[in-house]
Structure formats: C-alpha cells, structure tokens
Specification:
Blueprint lengths: L3 E4 L3 E4 L7 H11 L13 H14 L13 H13 L2 H16 L8 E10 L9 E3 L4 E10 L5 E8 L8 H12 L5 E4 L6 H8 L4 E4 L16 H11 L12 H24 L1
Parallel strand pairs: 3-7, 7-8
Antiparallel strand pairs: 1-2, 3-5, 4-5, 5-6
Length: 275
C-alpha cells in the first residue's frame, strides 16, 4: 500500500517508487539545501523538488510530462539547474563512496581505478554536439568514466562520440586524483588506451596504466579481469531511462545526471546495509 506524502500544508499524494525515503532525505538534505528552507522565494518543499527530479531521471520522460501531483516541471527544472551548477550530486556521490568503502572494510580512498567509456545515441536535443563513433557505428555522446574496484564513480567527462578514449586519460587522471587525494596508483584499461601518449598523460598525475587484453581466441562474451566492474557501473546508470540516450542539450547536465543516478543507487546500498 502506498503511503501518503504531504505537500505544503493540506494536500497529499500517493508516493512513487522513486521518492526519497526519510533516511535518505536526512542524508541528502545538507547537500541540496542551497538556501534556507523558509526563504521567501521558495514556493515548493525542497524534498518534493528532489522527488520530482528523481522521478524524471528514472522515468526518462520530457519535462512537460511530469505528473501533476509533483511540483510544476519549471520549478523542478530550475532547482535542478542550481544543483547542477553547485555540483551537489557529485559531492554527495563522493561522500557516499567513502562511507560504503569503509563499511566494506576498505580504505576510504582507493589505490586502483578502472577507466572506460560508453557511447549514448544522440537525440534532437543533443545532436548539435554529437559525434560519430566509428567503432560503435553510432552518432552521439561519449561518457568517459573512472571507477574504483567496487564500481563507485570517481571521475566523469562527457565528449562527442568521435573523441578518442586515450585522449581523455589526462583529464580523468587529474579528476580522480583530486577526488581521492592523489591516492590512486594503478588504472586498468582496455586496448583502446594503448600507446605512449595515454601512458605519459597518466604518469603525469602519478598513475600507471595496465592494459587488460582480450584473449586471442574469443568466443562470445568474455569476463575480463577487473575490467567488468566499470561495465557494471554503466549498466547501473542505464537503469535510469533518462540516461538510456543523450537527451540533454548541455553536456554538464548529462554528466550531472550520471552522478545523481549513482548517488541514488549508493543511497539504496547504504541504507539497505543499515536496515
């Protein structure tokens, strides 16, 4: 049975599966509160704006198709832009990563990472910045990611799909070292990162690349050591329909929704452990 959720003073609605729980909101609220809760310009409860965004990213629909029992879509969209500019979802995901690593008996900062990318099909909204990925035979955007050995996101960069993976090593290495306090020493990569230039770009940030090669005789799906972890992270993100394709006009919005999706999943994992 769905529980009632109060909106404002009197109105109630039935909850959605994407709604933030009381425990999750207690964790999220400090990251998302950019001004006082009772600020005169606030017309909708901040928690309901968060619920609206979570529903939107999970459902993958256009803004104007949001249900009428959630705050109006312009209000959710405007608040989302504020959160994106403040990098709220990224900060939340980093702190959740450290908490879950400690809970798993590991150091808060990882010493190893995995780099990879995924290509998202473009849409009319994102087509202006799209490129053609010759390997995937797809026009769109490429999401370059670095994760730890548990699959938790460390760094993220969005480019056109025709950008080479090896050209992003320097930016990813710099970002992941900033997120981990220069603690990462080794990064596992696939054969798309071979060559002197990516190795040198990684070395400039104290990182050594280790290429995990495919077996010479490959038949069907092959589970590669270490490398499968980042593929699982991409699969986690793909559970959110808004991330099934590149629907965003701005690259930073696409990146922020990836951080949000991973933060939501880490929140579920955190409070499932404490239940």
């Amino acid at each position: 049975m769905f529980s009632g959720i109060k909106i404002g003073m009197a109105k109630e609605r039935k909850s959605y599966p994407s709604d933030v729980s009381d425990e999750e909101w207690a964790f999220c609220a400090p990251y998302l509160t950019l001004m006082k809760e009772d600020a005169p310009q606030r017309q909708h409860p901040l928690r309901e704006l968060c619920n609206g965004l979570r529903w939107f990213v999970r459902a993958g629909c256009p803004w104007r198709m949001m249900p009428n029992d959630l705050p109006p879509w312009p209000a959710v969209q405007q608040q989302t832009r504020r959160w994106v500019r403040a990098r709220c979802f990224e900060h939340m995901a980093h702190d959740l990563r450290m908490v879950l690593r400690l809970a798993a008996g590991k150091n808060a900062a990882p010493s190893a990472a995995i780099l990879d990318s995924r290509t998202l099909q473009s849409t009319p909204e994102s087509g202006g910045r799209a490129g053609f990925d010759g390997a995937k035979k797809r026009k769109g955007s490429k999401v370059h990611a670095a994760v730890d050995t548990l699959g938790h996101l460390l760094a993220l960069k969005v480019t056109a799909a025709d950008e080479q993976d090896r050209a992003q090593v320097g930016a990813l290495a710099q970002a992941l070292q900033a997120a981990t306090g220069e603690n990462v020493e080794l990064a596992y990569v696939d054969q798309g990162y071979t060559g002197e230039k990516p190795a040198q770009a990684a070395q400039a940030h104290g990182l050594r690349l280790e290429v995990v090669k495919h077996p010479e005789a490959k038949h069907g799906f092959v589970l590669l050591p270490r490398r499968w972890v980042v593929e699982r992270t991409f699969a986690w993100a793909a559970r959110f329909r808004r991330l099934a394709r590149d629907y965003e006009r701005l690259a930073d919005t696409l990146a922020a929704y990836h951080w949000l999706a991973l933060a939501i999943l880490l929140l579920h994992a955190l409070f499932a452990q404490s239940a």
